[in-house]
Amino acid sequence: MLLQPERMGFRLQMHGDEYSRGTSIKVYTGLTAKVMTLFGYAKKQDFIDAEGHLRSYAINKKSLGNYMYRLHKCANSTSRLEKMEQKYAKSHDKENVSYTSYRHFANLIAKEVDTCFSKKALHLNEFVTSVETFQPKALQNSPMNVFYKIKNKENETVGYLVGTEHNVTEKKSNLHPKIKQAVLKSTSIAFEIQATIWNIIKSLYDFIKNIKNDPQYIIDYADLLERAPKCPGTESQIQSVNKQGKKASILSLETYSNHEKVMRPLVKLCKRLPKPLKIEQEDFVQEKDLELQIDRMRNLDPEVTKMGVDDRNIAMHEASKPLLKKASKENRLMIAVGAAHLVGETGFIKSLQGQNHRLIKVTKS
Fold it and tell me: What is the rounded CA–CA span in Å between residue 232 and residue 50?
C-alpha cells in the first residue's frame, strides 16, 4: 500500500505503483482518525497489506467523493489515470469554469459513500473494486426540471431556457452549478424585467402604495414567497454569477408597467392556491405540478390568469424572437423567467419548439 504523507494525514494511492493526487484519497491515522470519524468527516476501514498485516485508516468522505467523481468523468478515457490527475488540478482551481460543478457533485457523492465500506478487513484491491462498482445516485444522468439547452437547426447550442424563483433569499435556493456554467457561457441574458436602479425604485414605490391601499397585501406577498416553487436558482443569483464572469448584457422581455400592473391581482389569486408539496433538497419543481397550479388559477379566476400568465407569455415570446435570431454558438442567449412561464399552451417550452428551435433538457450530471 502506497502512502504519501500529507498535512494531518496521508494520501492512499488507489491505482498504480507511482503516487499522484488524482488517483489517491485522503486518509488519517491515530488521534486525527478518531476525531475525524467522531465528527462524521471520515469513516474507518481496516486493510490487509501485502505482508498480511492489519492496518486501520479513517478515509475522508469528501476526498472519496472527489475521487469517485474523477473516476466517473474519466471512465471512458484511454488514458484514465492521466485524465484523473488533470481533473484533480481543475477541481482545485477556483478560476476554472468546472470548479463549482465538480465540488457540487463530489459533495453529493460523499453523502452516499458509506455503503462502500466493509466491517471486515479488506485488501486494497477489494476496496478499490467496491469503489469502482459503486453507482452514486448523484451521478444518475437524469434530466433536470425547468432547465433546457436551446438548439438551432444545425443542432448547435445557441442558448438556454431556465425557470427561476422570484424574490427569495440566497439560502432558499442555491444556483445550480450547471446553470452557473451556462451563465458564464452566455453573452446575453434576458429576464422578465431588468433590475435597473429606476425599476427597483419604482417597484419599492408601488409595493409601498399597495400596502397603503391594502395592509393585508404585505401578508399576502410574504405568503406568496413561501409558496414559490423550488427552482435551480433566482434572478439575483444569475446576476451575481454574471458579474464574476465576462458580464453578459442584460435584457428585458417586458416593460416594468406591464409587469407591475398584474402583480397585485396575481398575489391575491395565488394566495387562494394550495401550498406546493415539500420536495427533497436536490430536487426542483416538476413541470406537471406547475401546469396543475396554473390550471387551478384558471379555474379560480380565468381573467387574472389570462392577464397575468397567458398575455405576458405571448408578449415575452414575441420579444425573444429577434434575440434568438441573433443567437449563435458563439453568442449564446439565456432566457431566465419565472418557472410558471415555461409551461402550458402559451409557455416558453411550446413557443420555442414552434420557432425552429429544439429544447433539450440538461442532465443533472
Answer: 48
pTM confidence score: 0.61
Considering the domain architecture, whether residues 122 and 167 belong to the same structural domain is answered as: no
Domain of 38, in residue numbers: 3-139
Q: Which of 107, 139, 171 is the last residue of a domain?
A: 139
Per residue of the chain (365 residues), what is the pLDDT tens digit?
788 999 889 999 998 778 899 999 999 999 999 999 999 999 999 999 888 999 999 999 999 999 998 888 887 777 888 888 888 887 887 766 567 767 777 888 899 999 889 999 999 999 999 998 888 887 776 667 789 999 998 889 999 999 887 654 444 446 778 888 899 999 999 998 765 655 556 666 566 666 667 666 555 555 555 555 566 677 888 888 888 877 899 998 987 677 777 777 777 777 777 665 444 444 566 787 788 888 888 998 999 899 889 999 999 999 999 999 999 999 999 999 988 899 989 999 998 886 678 898 887 66
Q: Are residues 125 and 151 in the same domain?
A: no
> How many structural domains is the chain composed of?
2
Structure letter (DSSP) for residue 206: H
Going by C-beta distance under 8 Å and a sequence separation of 6 or more, which residues neighbour residue 65? Answer: 106, 107, 108, 109, 110, 111, 112, 113
Per-residue buried b or exposed e for 42-61, using 16+ beta carbons within 10 Å of the residue's own CB: bbebebbeeeeeebebbbbb
